[in-house]
Amino acid sequence: MIQLRDIDKFTDSRFQRTFILKGIHLDVEPGEFLTIMGPSGAGKSTLMNIIGMLDEPSAGEYFFYDQPVHKLREKQKSELHKNHIGFIFQAYHLIDELTVYENIETPLLYKGVSSNERKSLVAEMLDRFNMVAKKDLFPEQLSGGQQQLVGIARAIVGEPKMLLADEPTGNLHSDQGKHIMDIFQKLNEEGMTIIQVTHSEENAQRGKRIVRVVDGAIVSDEKVKG
After folding, report:
1. What's the domain range around 199?
2. CATH number at residue 171
3. Which of 42, 68, 151, 220 could join 212 in a cystine, given CB atoms 3.0 to 4.6 angstroms apart?
4. What is the distance between the alpha carbons of residues 29 and 81, in angstroms, rounded to a whole number?
5. What's the domain count of the chain?
6. 3-state SS class at 112
7. What is the pLDDT of residues 108-124, one digit of tens each?
8. In the predicted model, is pLDDT for residue 91 greater than 80?
């Protein structure tokens, strides 16, 4: 599903090249639940943004379902992202001016889903996340945990092939975090490919494989013992 080959990400100043990622080699199969771990500043979020096509590598090759992402134009990448990838951010990234219902509906509008189908998909998400009573509220009227649930509902409403989650439970208390990890495990059991970045060893154990990144390079890649 995903092949990263010799991916570098760097910034150049007049006298110096600073590497954020160096020589990343990574394969992800459909249906995997992969965790990326490492200290702050290791390059985890940059790697996620490249996989999610929100950022470009400075060098190397990226294949997504055999499509050479590194050669695609911006519009083609945007189409791939829109149709196949759901992204959950640590800082929620909800649209303040839109209600819970409208936030969840947004990706379906981008995909051109019909009005009736949108209604039924959003209703299903509201039900799944116990948010029916909150559908007309705005993000500022929700707790952090509720905002993150809306973020997850928005990311998966279009049934993406791959879900990317960058520190999805970082701002939540433990019960909310556990609830969200339960949701991820169920989605993965339903066939969704998930890649998460987390500092939590407990959350990492929910997945099937842990890739550790230090100073922009992969230092280990191991299956979760379970």
Report:
1. 34-56+85-223
2. 3.40.50.300
3. 220
4. 17
5. 1
6. coil
7. 998 888 999 999 999 99
8. no
